[in-house]
TrEMBL record:
It comes from Salix purpurea (Purple osier willow). Homodimer. HAMAP family: TIM_B. Signal peptide: none annotated. PROSITE patterns: TIM_1, TIM_2. Gene3D superfamilies: Aldolase class I. One of its GO terms (molecular function) is triose-phosphate isomerase activity. One of its GO terms (biological process) is glyceraldehyde-3-phosphate biosynthetic process. This is TRIOSEPHOSPHATE ISOMERASE. Pfam families: TIM. Pathway: Carbohydrate biosynthesis. GO terms for cellular component: cytosol. The keyword Transmembrane helix does not apply. Transmembrane segments: none annotated.
Length: 266
């Protein structure tokens, strides 16, 4: 079964109420390929989740950018997975490199988070990726395999997991991985899943790429057989760009993909 292209915008810690409303209304008006062809999500900061969920067209999904590792309680400043479910948020990004590096989230902690979020019914976009130093020392595969293993040890059902390979050196730097570099890691990851988890999981799990993706570089990346979509940061603040990403891949009109990722920046 073909893996459905999966593309999302990570708005990170950006946006005002007005900007968010503007992006959502642009997205709502966009002409995009059907849900059968491409799955689209946007990931606003927590405070905007209910608003975006209530205003956004139903064929697009909303994802949180994080959630707490277990049931809520006395964890000041955290947001629980149950709260996301309660608000009707279907999806969460976990293990983003900014959280791994700035907030010291370990592989094990991310694995626990992924397992807990799945257990309450959320879909998870689990991020993995190596630093520049790790790449230069030749340990890229060892790093991403260890990150994936920490997830695999806690998760038995992969149906609601999307893996996002995001080389740290490519995030927000404008230095995108070449299609060859990205494909090499995606293929190795799929082999790792095959050998360590199972053939079915390897064949069906979407592995999306993130790191300086934009309308100009997405076509070649999307043409790689093991790249199943994109997690887009900076360019996702430009709605036009996100839409253009989707369209380029599926040869719909270019104007479209360029709409998802534009508004905050215009
Ligand atoms: P970028 O971010 O597209 O701005 O590089 C990607 C991400 O952090 O998910």
């Amino acid at each position: 079964m073909a893996r459905k292209f999966f593309i999302g915008g990570n708005w990170k810690c950006n946006g005002t109420l007005e900007e968010v409303k503007k992006i959502v209304s642009m997205l709502n008006e966009a002409e995009i390929p059907s849900e059968n062809v491409v799955e689209v999500f946007v990931s606003p900061p927590f405070v905007f989740l209910p608003l975006v969920e209530s205003l956004l067209r139903p064929d697009f999904q909303v994802a949180a950018q994080n959630c707490w590792v277990r049931k809520g309680g006395a964890f000041t400043g955290e947001i629980s997975a149950e709260m996301l479910v309660n608000l009707g948020i279907p999806c969460v990004i976990l293990g983003h490199s900014e959280r791994r590096s700035l907030l010291n989230e370990s592989d094990e902690f991310v694995g626990d988070k992924v397992a807990y979020a799945l257990s309450v019914g959320l879909k998870v976009i689990a991020c993995i990726g190596e630093t520049l130093q790790q790449r230069e020392s030749g340990s890229t595969m060892a790093v991403v395999a260890a990150q994936t293993k920490a997830i695999a040890e806690k998760v038995s059902n992969w149906a609601n997991v999307v893996l996002a390979y995001e080389p740290v050196w490519a995030i927000g730097t404008g230095k995108v991985a070449t299609p060859g570099q990205a494909q090499e890691v995606h293929l190795e990851l799929r082999k790792w899943l095959h050998d360590s988890v199972g053939a079915e999981v390897a064949a069906t799990t979407r592995i999306i790429y993130g790191g300086s993706v934009n309308g100009a570089n997405c076509r070649e990346l999307a043409a790689q057989p093991d790249i199943d979509g994109f997690l887009v940061g900076g360019a996702s603040l430009k709605v036009a760009c996100l839409l253009s990403l989707m369209k380029r891949h599926h040869s719909f009109s270019l104007a479209f993909l360029f709409q998802i990722f534009w508004p905050l920046a215009v």
